[in-house]
């Protein structure tokens, strides 16, 4: 593609060797530059520029303020006020095709579940769809892990282009707050946008709840197609704010939740020993369906996915036909299959105060009389430290026995993290080492007790100092239970 064709009002040619200059691609990562590519400079660093040039970069995209710091050997320079936005625009030029129906889901908790439920509904109805998110990229026979919940703009547009070439017209994707603020999703044509909830998380990055919310609302104000629809859970104050914004801006929207004012209202939840019967109502129509979910937030997420599936062209009765067999997302309030029938052990990704509270409340609903709710959890290092007090308080209030242990301490001192949480949970038992904490918790379990191992869910690794170690809560729990069975 010719450099002059890449330019618009926000991207200008600052310096160009000759008018017919062509670039073969674009990358943020200097290590992935190949001959003839354009290097998009996000963080000013002369080493990155030198590496990119050495590997064959023909041009550099940067902010005008960074031009004077560029190596004088850079012969071709594009300048912009916003490198991330410019890169998204250029990526769209290189990879112009996208699925026709893109559903994007944002919120603190529930993104992965809604996306996964929608993807499973499509599969059960023989719709050729795809999903992007925390669990990676999934479609047809592809199941590819990714490092980010929402890919960077260049890789995102590349993957969207691939889907269209494979004749996949339906995509469900997670939209993280980091991605929305960093404009990774700009130039993605979002047909349907769903909001789950907002509670404290990522304040190490966003600094306060106002900025955190601002990043989320970008999906509705800036990225949702003008002819698209917003789907909003209004059981939380931020959902009501999103709805008010949509109403004020005349953005077509549908609300859902347990409240009487919801367009799609969850009327009743009847928990049976092996399933749950849910009643939902839309206008004058009422629907009943059976599912294997127990928590109210899980049911909300499923209802959100049902609404998206309807918007994507499926009839509600058709969606509900096989909803009982819908698969949960990995590590989301998952009951571990055990050979010891009287032990109930769940793993959950809950790593925010609100998510932990909701999971504990849900499990208490199925806890038998005189049985105990036991919790194992920790908090990540080098992340929002304000959550630690809140999570300790939640554990103190909603669990009967609490083991505080290590999550992903990263380069923080694990003992300091544990002590900080424990100072707000008097009933806690402080245990160094996650494996040891899990085995101790299982060891004290009695008939009908429930154990929740929270914080890591689907994750298969643990980050300690500069090492990424293999670690799986489910495997550790199963291995110890088999050992206990043989004793």
Properties at a glance:
single chain; 487 residues; alpha/beta; Udp-n-acetylmuramoylalanyl-d-glutamate--2,6- Diaminopimelate Ligase, Chain: A, domain 1; UDP-N-acetylmuramoyl-L-alanine:D-glutamate ligase; eleven-stranded mixed β-sheet; 16 helices; 24 strands
What's the layout of helices and strands?
Blueprint lengths: L2 H4 L4 E5 L10 E2 L10 E3 L5 H9 L4 E5 L13 E4 L2 H12 L6 E6 L4 H14 L4 E5 L2 E4 L2 E3 L8 H13 L4 E5 L2 H5 L8 E6 L7 H4 L2 H15 E10 L3 H12 L4 E5 L6 E8 L4 E7 L2 E7 L4 H16 L4 H5 L13 E2 L8 E5 L4 H13 L7 E5 L8 H13 L2 E4 L9 H9 L5 E3 L3 H10 L6 E5 L6 E4 L2 E4 L2 H14 L1
Parallel strand pairs: 2-3, 3-4, 4-5, 6-10, 6-11, 7-10, 11-12, 12-13, 13-14, 18-22, 19-20, 19-22, 20-21
Antiparallel strand pairs: 1-5, 7-8, 8-9, 14-15, 15-16, 17-18, 23-24
Helix pairs in contact: 3-5, 4-10, 8-9, 12-13, 13-14, 15-16
What would you note in describing this structure?
Helix 12 (353-365) packs parallel to helix 13. With 487 residues, this protein is α/β, with parallel strands linked by helices. The protein folds into three domains: 3-94, Udp-n-acetylmuramoylalanyl-d-glutamate--2,6- Diaminopimelate Ligase, Chain: A, domain 1; 101-325, Mur-like, catalytic domain (UDP-N-acetylmuramoyl-L-alanine:D-glutamate ligase); 334-486, Protein-Tyrosine Phosphatase, Chain A (Alpha-Beta Complex). The protein has 16 helices and 24 strands. The longest helix has 16 residues, at 296-311.
